[in-house]
Design goal:
Number of helices: 11
Distance between the termini: 128 Å
Strand content: 5-15%
Largest sheet: 4 strands, parallel
């Protein structure tokens, strides 16, 4: 029994393994055509895919490189944007608020139709927006039910009205200037001046007539008065302040140049606030 001989078993498994890899079969075969003929359709597809994958290796490497470079540029762009944002914040920190106070007297509702009350609301919204952008913003805008004379001493109040005989030369930043919140289309001439006199508070008009020739009466919308004061706080020049704010439709030209207005392009605002004007 010890010397019993067993028949030799062919290595079927080894042969099967050697035939599994199409690439190996291609090398082991006598020729390419014979190998392809002996392969199944599925094996030929697999071999073709493998060949294509190897041929496109350099292309894939180049695409990865380009993708990496693109991500790097995007990161750098974000860093640059962040840096610009920080610069703007730094510039914003340089804003110096003024101690000057501006008041919009909103006690004239009975003198306006609903349409004009809505216009006044828009003008006040414009004031708020411009104050936020100003280099020297005035005190924060607040809505108060109390009368301004109850909140501020009379000697610190100055009512801005175009009918006042007093012309404002400089702005006193310790004062509180009152703007009449009235859109009346000149139907109630002198009403704000009369109110200031009755209340026994100071009054004055902006020095518009000293620098500007206008086609219309010197009555400005609430937001125009507000913006002119903000501009003056920044520029300290009434003429520059007026012409940086006044809309062109007012026909305003520098005093002394009224007869030659066609030669002067105003730097004032366009008709974008047409529905905000009080005239």
């Amino acid at each position: 029994m010890e010397n019993a001989l067993f028949p030799e078993v062919p290595d079927v498994e080894g042969k099967a393994k050697s035939n599994d890899n199409p690439a190996e079969r291609l090398e082991a075969g006598s020729g390419k055509e014979e190998c392809l003929e002996s392969m199944s359709k599925r094996q030929r597809k697999k071999l073709l895919k493998q060949k294509q994958w190897e041929e496109q290796r350099d292309l894939r490497r180049q695409k990865r490189k380009e993708k990496c470079q693109k991500r790097k540029l995007e990161r750098q762009s974000k860093l640059d944007s962040s840096s610009e944002g920080n610069d703007r914040k730094c510039m914003r920190r340089e804003v110096v608020p003024s101690t000057l106070r501006l008041i919009v007297d909103c006690s004239f509702d009975d003198f306006m139709v609903l349409k004009d009350v809505k216009k006044l609301h828009k003008q006040i919204q414009r004031c708020y927006a411009e104050n936020r952008k100003a280099l020297h913003p005035v005190q924060d805008i607040q809505i108060r039910t109390e009368h301004y004379s109850e909140l501020i001493k009379k000697e610190d109040l100055v009512y801005l009205t175009s009918d006042s005989p007093d012309v404002l030369r400089e702005l006193d930043e310790k004062k509180a200037y009152v703007i009449g919140g009235l859109v009346d289309h000149n139907h109630h001439k002198g009403i704000t001046y009369k109110k200031a006199v009755e209340q026994g508070i100071g009054h004055a008009q902006l020095p518009l007539g000293n620098f500007v020739k206008m086609n219309s009466r010197k009555v400005l919308a609430v937001n125009h008065v507000f913006e002119i004061i903000l501009a003056y706080l920044e520029k300290r020049d009434w003429k520059e302040a007026f012409f940086s704010v006044l809309p062109q439709r007012k026909g305003a030209v520098p005093l002394g140049e009224a007869n030659d207005s066609s030669k002067h392009a105003l730097s004032g605002k366009e008709d974008e606030d047409n529905d905000l004007d009080s005239n």
